């Protein structure tokens, strides 16, 4: 059955997805997450920041803190002349504010093309330098949120930066010459090639070579190292394979498969996702994400499955021979939940093929050809929306092209009719 109780964390993540999705509508996001539109609207009203980029509305307007219902009417005893003076002053104040806002709008419109590239702080400095003749430096710095002293210090160092840029460009050409001979060379080998037989004054540091290669999009050919998430525990107790590659079940909440997979980030680090998948409907009954793959991560995923199902007593949970699944902590957790552990053979991905297939589908549909997520927040946000939509909206071939939740609901209805 569908989850009836939503945690505070789930509500906040749902609101975050709505507010951070450009062009989103309450109906669209609510449908993806399996919620009623009114439910999501209530959460947004209670927990939202009021900064949505959704198509259905913008941040709510607020009344000026200095205004009051009687501010423009004055007291009963105010003379006509005094009222006129006050209103004229207010008009001048509003005109000045409008002029300021129009100026800032023009500045920001001109600044748009400077952002989203290179270093953001450098882009702000460059923008101020390029527009200092059209606007006051003070106003420019205030609008793009930098200090004038920092800008003037950056501007003073322009000649030194130009000299370094020219030297870096010359070094980049030398690197390209090395790459023509061997494109597989990375920064360490390129540095060695450049320094081979060079005079002491012409030698270059490997850190500088790495920076120049990065800035000029020069890189050696390399394969991404496969992240190993299944690490056997030598002292493990023997656990029988109860599934024998039969990933079916007669009903929901009978048999599950679990696994851990890595989610690569652009910075070179990984997040790790633990999943609990129902073999009957392929429903993602529980999941958890963290920057580690300790047994605590699996415990969090099973706890999420417990919250979804209400009880896991009597269910079989099948996994691979990773150290997390063979640990004493995991065995104790299975006893507490009343579940029976099952494990395939060591080194055989086919023995947990359902979980492996799920992981491949998740990465294919979320990354869409990209190698990594840009940052941790994007990864977590994408995963929350996809995982929820996977159960409520995504059509699955196993479920006769229905969503897992719908497939399970039909099973419950069939049992009710039979009774």
Highlighted features:
5-stranded mixed beta sheet, 4 domains, alpha/beta, 8% strand, 419 residues, Arc Repressor Mutant, subunit A, 50% helix
Q: What is the general shape?
A: flat
Sheet with the most strands, sense and barrel status:
5 strands, mixed
**If you compute it from the alpha carbons, what radius of gyration comes out, rounded to the nearest whole angstrom?**
30 Å
Helix amount: 40-55%
Note down, in words, how this protein is organized.
The chain is α/β, with parallel strands linked by helices and 419 residues long. It folds into four domains: 8-47, Arc Repressor Mutant, subunit A (Orthogonal Bundle); 86-156, no CATH class; 159-215; 255-418, 2-Layer Sandwich (Nucleotidyltransferase, domain 5). 50% of the residues lie in helices and 8% in strands. The protein contains 15 helices and five strands. The protein has helices at 8-20, 26-33, 37-47, 80-111, 120-131, 137-144, 148-156, 158-181, 187-195, 206-215, 295-309, 328-337, 353-367, 376-392, 404-418, and strands at residues 255-264, 270-278, 284-290, 316-319, 340-343. The chain has a five-stranded mixed beta sheet with strand order 3-2-1-4-5, sandwiched between helices. A hairpin with a 5-residue loop joins strand 1 and strand 2. The two termini are 18 Å apart. Mean pLDDT is 81; it is low at 54-75.
């Amino acid at each position: 059955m569908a989850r009836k109780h939503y945690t505070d964390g789930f509500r906040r993540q749902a609101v975050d997805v709505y507010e951070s999705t450009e062009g989103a509508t309450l109906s669209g996001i609510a449908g993806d997450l399996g919620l009623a539109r009114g439910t999501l609207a209530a959460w947004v009203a209670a927990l939202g920041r009021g900064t949505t980029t959704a198509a259905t509305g913008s941040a709510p307007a607020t009344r000026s803190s200095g205004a009051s219902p009687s501010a423009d009417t004055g007291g009963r005893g105010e003379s006509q002349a005094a009222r006129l003076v006050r209103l004229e002053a207010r008009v001048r104040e509003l005109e000045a504010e409008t002029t300021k806002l129009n100026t800032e709008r023009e500045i920001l419109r001109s600044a748009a093309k400077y952002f989203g590239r290179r270093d953001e702080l450098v882009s702000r400095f460059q923008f101020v330098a390029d527009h200092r003749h059209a606007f006051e430096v003070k106003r420019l710095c205030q609008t793009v949120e930098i200090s004038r002293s920092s800008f003037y210090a950056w501007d003073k160092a322009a000649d030194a930066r130009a000299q370094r840029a020219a030297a870096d460009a010359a070094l980049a050409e030398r690197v390209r010459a090395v790459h023509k001979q061997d494109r597989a060379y990375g920064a360490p080998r390129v540095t060695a090639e450049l320094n081979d037989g060079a005079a002491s004054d012409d030698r270059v540091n490997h850190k500088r070579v790495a920076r120049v290669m990065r800035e000029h999009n020069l890189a050696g050919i390399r394969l991404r190292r496969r992240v190993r998430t299944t690490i056997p525990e030598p002292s493990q107790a023997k656990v029988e394979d109860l599934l024998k590659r039969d990933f079916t079940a007669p009903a929901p909440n009978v048999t599950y498969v679990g696994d851990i997979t890595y989610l690569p980030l652009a910075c070179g680090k990984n997040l790790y996702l633990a999943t609990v998948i129902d073999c009957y409907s392929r429903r993602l009954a529980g999941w958890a994400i963290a920057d580690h793959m300790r047994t605590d991560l699996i415990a969090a995923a099973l706890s999420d499955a417990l919250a979804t199902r209400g009880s896991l007593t009597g269910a079989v949970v099948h996994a691979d021979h990773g150290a997390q699944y063979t640990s004493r902590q995991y065995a104790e957790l299975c006893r507490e939940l009343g579940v029976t552990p099952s494990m395939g053979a060591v080194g055989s991905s086919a023995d947990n093929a359902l979980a492996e297939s799920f992981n491949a589908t998740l990465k294919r549909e979320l990354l869409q050809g990209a190698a990594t997520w840009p940052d941790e927040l994007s990864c977590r946000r994408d995963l929350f929306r996809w995982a929820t939509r996977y159960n409520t909206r995504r059509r699955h071939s196993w479920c006769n092209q229905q969503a897992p939740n719908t497939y399970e609901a039909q099973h419950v209805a069939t049992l009710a009719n039979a009774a």
